[in-house]
Amino acid sequence: MLKIKGKKWYLDFSFFDKKGYKDFGSKLKLNSDKSSKAFRVFFKNLNNEAKETKQAGILILKYLKEGKLNKEEEKELKIQFYYILKIMGVGVPFFMIPGSTVLVPFLLKLAKKLGVDILPKSFKKKDD
Fold first, then answer.
1. CA-CA distance, 93 to 21, in Å (whole number)?
2. Element (H, E) at 120
3. CA distance linking residue 79 with residue 52, whole number of Å
4. What pLDDT, in 10s, does the model give residues 51-84?
5. Do 118 and 89 touch, CB atoms closer than 8 A?
6. Which tens digit of pLDDT belongs to each residue from 7-51?
7. If you ran DSSP here, which 8-state letter would residue 123 be given?
8. CA angle at residue 62 from 58 to 68, to 5 degrees?
9. Region class of 20: left (phi > 0), else alpha (psi between -120 and 50), else beta
10. If we measure between CA atoms, which residue out of 73, 68, 109, 63 comes closest to residue 90?
């Protein structure tokens, strides 16, 4: 469970113990600072993608009402749709395939090695 005290975030990993994932919870506790940071970054990136998807939805509504978009709006909509397809390609297997917690990081590393871009821009490091 995510808790916020002041400006510092921390995660209460007892949730995993209660659900029967004691090994996973204990590993997260051992690396609590790294784990908390990873969760914060993930949710921040997810929030950015949600905002961009919402803007794309607004553009779709505009197109449905007016029947046209300017070139810049059309380009923005195409890019966001492309990112949504990327999320579906990486995210859906994560929830549907058993053992995907190992598979997805391997897939990301392999794709990077082969020069294939499979992550939306919000999930990319700034230095990449």
1. 21
2. none
3. 10
4. 888 999 999 999 999 988 999 999 998 888 888 8
5. yes
6. 555 566 676 777 677 777 777 777 767 767 777 788 888 888 888
7. G
8. 135
9. left
10. 109
